[in-house]
Known about the structure:
By secondary structure, the protein is an alpha+beta fold. The protein has helices at about 1-15, 20-85, 85-95, 100-115, 145-165, 215-225, 255-260, 300-305, 305-335, 340-350, 365-425, 430-445, 455-475, 500-510, 545-550, 565-580, 610-624, and strands spanning about 120-125, 135, 170-180, 185-195, 205-210, 230-235, 240-245, 270-275, 280-285, 290-300, 450-455, 475-485, 490-495, 515-525, 530-535, 585-590, 600-605. It folds into 3 domains: about 85-215, PAS domain (Beta-Lactamase), CATH 3.30.450.20; about 230-305, PAS domain (Beta-Lactamase, 2-Layer Sandwich); about 390-624, 2-Layer Sandwich (Heat Shock Protein 90).
Amino acid sequence: MKQAWAWLAYPIRAVERSFFLKMLIGMLAIIIVTVCSLGINFYVVTSKGINRDAVANMQQLTDQAVLTIESQMETIRNESWNFFGDSELQTLVKSGFGSPDATSYFMSKMGILERNNPLIGAILIMGKDAEGRIQTGVSNYYGNDGQRQTFEEEIARLQQVAISRNGTGAWEFSRLMNRTEHRVMPTFAFVQALKDVQKDLQPIIGTIVILLDGEMLQQWMDSLQAQNSFAYAVMDRKDGCPVLRTASGSGSCASAIETAQMSRSEQQSYKYTDESGRRSLVVYRAISQTEWVLVGKAPLSELLGQVNAVAKRTLLIGTVCLIVAMLLAAVLSSKVLRPIKHLRLGMRQIEKGNYKIAVPVETKDEIGFFCHNFNRMASEIHSLIRQVYESELKKKDAEIKALQLQMNPHFLYNTLGTIESLASIPGSEEMIGDICRSISSMLRYNISGGRYASIGEEMKQIRQYLSIQKIRFGSRLEYELRVDEQLSSVSIPKLLFQPIVENSIIHGIEGMRRGGKVCIEAIALNERELQIRVTDNGIGFEPMKLQSIRSGLNGKPLSASAGQTDASIGIKNIHSRIRLLYGDAYGLTIESGPQAGTVVALTLMTAIPDGEEARDGLQSASIG
């Protein structure tokens, strides 16, 4: 007994320790249910195939019917063209049908054509202004004087249609009395104007009207319905109304307009419609060289009655199997995927920065192994956070120092250039002495230690620099410094905006004969942010140059070797320095235009970022 239990427990333990086996068993169960469902669903697919076959069959029958009527209509059109091109007939018409022999000849010819084509009911050849005519078969369309008058009025209308087409044949719908049926029946008429082809302008000399037998047309329509369960109708594309239909033909003006319009496209020849909750299949085909469409319609309930019953039964079985499969999959997944859910929740905590998370280890399989190693990984990451944090802080300090050192040579170069210019002027020793004292004070400020200074101290440094430039430019340079009183003691990065002031003078004002003005102001935007603006009324930047500078603000810090100007380097490095200290939400913006001056705005925080002030104090102490 114990041995049998051991053999039974072995595969259970194997499954408990293997996530793969759990998923395999689950998938096998789902596959079995799915295969059974697919087998049953085969009936649904078969139903669709039968439906497609029915559509194809109906399309084929409709196409054959249209081809038949088109063939008959084309034959009649060709016969009309034979009359049109007959020079003897043209001579007869122009003479007012004055030749008895020619009249008898063409009457005989028209009679033969009528007898050989049962679809033709009557043929009329008339002069343009009712100057005589020859005809055959017209007695089938009236039995008394009133009916004859109606017939003549319709013939006159058709004659006008033919004249309006100017020699081009056309099919026209007509309604005429049928003596056999003793009622007015719809029919088709082919009309064409006769023209004198021997003259240059080819004037119209008469008309040809060929009437189709309405009874034969109706028999053709009824024969279509006899072949299948469709009700047929010939629709007029102009207004969507039926002009000819079977006894049970369907299609009112309102319901057929869309079908008639769709028939203009050859991309599709059938569609499904819903009328009063009854779904039907509509097959349509345009009759060439006319504005008519042959439309067939049959309710799907009649067309696919037996197939629909099988499909409904099969779908019911398939639905039950699907529900069972879903329930089975839910039970299996709840057991297999519970540890994965715990692991996912743990990962979300890691994303939020909580590295103290520990997910429960409920199994000994592969998922349990993942959970155990996840907990160990989270613990190791938590212990390494402080080391990485300290390393990043040191790296940040080094980058800031590098940027600051990169700006200082530019300032010294520009200042020494000013001294060199003054040295060539006699009697400038006192001014050179003032410049040297200012430089000495500025250099002492620069190496005094610390990476931050108050805005007031920075403005004092800028004032010394501007006093040097004032000596050089004289009345050509004006400057103004404005600081909100509450901002004087706010700490900002040291020597932050001095390069901007240098650029304003050298690149904005120096090249102007009349000189210019530089304005430096510090304003508070809100309790947390301030802005330092350096404005000049110099020559400004061209649009392409301004766009180049703006595009370069998001790259790496620039150097002269990169092929950039000093102005670009200074602006770029200041922007990088601000973003490195305060974050990507802060930095430098520039607005300028040709001969419109330049405005450079530096957006900063009113407080030194956390930890920066302490490190700045340590750095100052070590330098001192």
